Amino acid sequence: MSIVGIIANPSAGRDIRRLVAHASVFDNNEKVNIVRRVLLALDATGVARVLLMPDAFGIGRKALDNLHLQLAVEMVAMEPRFEEHDSVEAAERMVAAGVSTLITLGGDGTNRAVAKTCGATPLTPISTGTNNVFPVMVEGTVAGLAAGLVATGAVPLTIATHPTKRLELWRNDRLEDIALVDAVVYRERFIGARAVWHADDIQEVVLARAEPFSIGLSAIGGYLEPTPPGEEEGIFLEVGSGGTAVLAPIAPGLIRPIPVKSHRRIQIGESISINRTPTVIALDGERKFTLRQGERVDIRLSQAGPLVVDIQRTLQYAAQIGWFVRSSYTASPANPA
Predict the structure, then answer these.
(1) What is the pTM of this model?
(2) 14 lies in the same domain as 157
């Protein structure tokens, strides 16, 4: 049976960067509309069953209102806490139920949470967050078609997906957390507002990916290294005077010169030791850990990131094999010739 999971984060895209920058707003009503279009596309591809994450706003429940589908839809049996852990638990339960792909509505933080427990189940990430490097801006109908083609086996995973890297935060030989895009050492004593937006307090940046067309801190690496890091490479930046300055869009509409003292590429398996204290470490744009005097953590580049559905390549392949072409068509009152 083809099963797809949908995790729509109602809190995505609602951080302080709405106030200090010019980030777009994806309200939850629009997320409802996106989920509706995703469901209709999944239904058209022949997906048999969809699992939805329950949430405080009721995105999944509202998306089903007056929607007539052939596929079966149910909410995941879990008690939501209305925090990041909901995405982690929902992904874990959906994977255990045998989903073929997970569709996420959120930003880098949402996908980071899902990636903690998705294992080898590929993600189809739809961008509805603030600084989005990992998910893509895509019409929900198109994303739903690609996810459905993967779930039903119409397009094999070897063609439909590509692997990604991740950054692992290790403390005392224990894996504490992960990031899919960047880990930032921030000159602060307290976590406070979780978003990273004050460039003057950035000390070090470790990047799993860096493209010049990205928004956020990964853009700095993308401008310094015009050739994107390879599949087994990342970038380490030391921020400060004595080097060069990079004009970068660190948040939507927030373009600042960032002084870079040094930068270099790092390899899979290589670790960057962080022992500046006191400091705060942010993962994918959200402050997560406080490092106190005498403590140390290691940030390791790993190839254990999640598989991601390549929407464009999936649809191109489906078109090439004629999946969308039907052998015959009979006009009906609902579909006049």
Answers:
(1) 0.91
(2) yes
What is the span of the domain harbouring residue 298? Answer: 166-302
Q: Return the H-helix or E-strand segment holding 88.
A: helix 84-96
pLDDT in tens, 159-210: 999 999 999 999 988 999 999 999 999 887 665 555 555 778 899 999 999 9
Q: Considering the domain boundaries, does residue 327 fall inside one? A: no
- Would residue 325 count as lying in a domain? no
Within 10 angstroms of residue 81's Cβ, the number of other Cβ atoms is 10
* pLDDT digits 0-9 by tens, 4-21: 999 999 987 555 444 444
- Let me know if residue 334 belongs to a domain: no
* Whole-angstrom distance, CA of residue 316 vs CA of residue 155: 10
C-alpha 19: how far from its chain's center?
A: 22
Pull the structure tokens for residue 251: 């948040």
3-state class (DSSP) for residue 119: coil
Residues 10 and 150 reside in one and the same domain: yes
Instruction: Please list, in sequence order, all residues whose beta carbon lies within 8 angstroms of the beta carbon of residue 135, skipping any fewer than 6 positions away.
Output: 104, 106, 107, 108, 110, 111, 125, 126, 127, 128, 129
